[in-house]
Amino acid sequence: MVITLSNLPAHITEEHIVDMLKGDTRIQKITLNNDGNPDKVMAFVEMDIDRLEAAFLSKHLDQSFFGDRRIQAYTPLFFSR
């Protein structure tokens, strides 16, 4: 499953994302994207979890803060690579 994190600052790294997820070992891949607006980064976090757990984790991360930014998190219904 994929969890999408948006409104991240430009200086975010994959290590920051891993820290946000408390070092969860089920993370398979993290893709950072800042196309369109270099000040707002999106992260696509691919994890070895089911949809229910992804939705729970998204809800937990949604509206949390990274620095002075309020993160938006969701689990997309469909995701193509």
What would your notes on this structure say?
The chain is of the alpha+beta class. It is built from 2 helices and 6 strands. The chain has a 4-stranded antiparallel β-sheet with strand order 2-3-1-6, with helices on one face. Strand 4 and strand 5 form a beta hairpin. The longest helix has 11 residues, at 51-61. The radius of gyration is 12 Å and the shape is globular. The chain starts with a strand and ends in a 7-residue tail after the last strand.
List keywords for this structure.
4-stranded antiparallel sheet; globular; alpha+beta; two-stranded antiparallel sheet
Which SSEs are present, and which pair or pack?
Layout: E1 2-8, H1 14-20, E2 27-33, E3 41-47, H2 51-61, E4 65-66, E5 69-70, E6 72-74
Antiparallel strand pairs: 1-3, 1-6, 2-3, 4-5
Poorly predicted runs of 5 or more residues: none
The residue fraction in helices comes out at: 10-25%
What is the β-strand count?
A: 6
The general outline is globular
Strand order of the largest sheet: 2-3-1-6
